[in-house]
Design goal:
132 residues, mainly alpha, 0% strand
C-alpha cells in the first residue's frame, strides 16, 4: 500500500516555505493538473520527490481528496487504503492550489535565490530514488 507521511518533505513544491525555482519547470507544471474537475485530472498519484514509494503529502493535503481521480482509482485498485483519506491535514503551510504552487515555483526559476540554490544542492546529494 502507498501512504503519505505525516507532513510534506522539506522540499515539497506545495510548501509555502520552500524557495521558488527549486524544481524543474516540468515538475511545477504538473501541479495545476490536479486542480481540474475530477474527470479531467491525471489518473496517477502524485508521488513524493524526496521519499521513495510515498505519496506527496503536500499534494495529498492541498487537493480535495474526495474529488481526486487518482485517489479514487488507487483505492479501487487496492493501492491506497480508503481509511487514509481520513488522515488529518498536516500543519505545514501549503499553497492553496496546484496553480498557486506552480505560479510561485516558476517565479524565480530563471534566477533562483541563494536559498533555492542550497535546496537544489541538498537534493542533488540525496540518494537517487529507485526507478520503477
Amino acid at each position: 500500500m502507498i501512504r503519505a507521511t505525516d507532513s510534506p518533505c522539506q522540499f515539497c513544491p506545495y510548501r509555502k516555505d520552500v524557495p521558488s525555482g527549486v524544481w524543474d519547470e516540468s515538475e511545477y507544471l504538473k501541479l495545476p493538473l490536479y486542480d481540474a474537475a475530477t474527470s479531467s485530472q491525471p489518473p496517477g498519484i502524485f508521488m513524493c520527490h524526496a521519499r521513495e514509494r510515498e505519496m506527496c503529502r503536500g499534494w495529498f493535503d492541498c487537493h480535495d481528496r474526495d474529488e481526486s481521480l487518482s485517489l479514487r482509482l488507487a483505492i479501487t485498485l487496492g493501492i491506497v487504503d480508503r481509511d487514509h483519506l481520513l488522515d488529518p491535514v498536516s500543519s505545514v503551510p501549503l499553497h492553496e492550489s496546484g496553480a498557486l504552487a506552480c505560479e510561485f515555483g516558476l517565479r524565480d526559476i530563471d534566477d533562483p535565490s541563494p536559498a533555492a540554490m542550497r535546496a537544489m544542492e541538498s537534493l542533488a546529494r540525496m540518494p537517487r530514488l529507485e526507478q520503477e
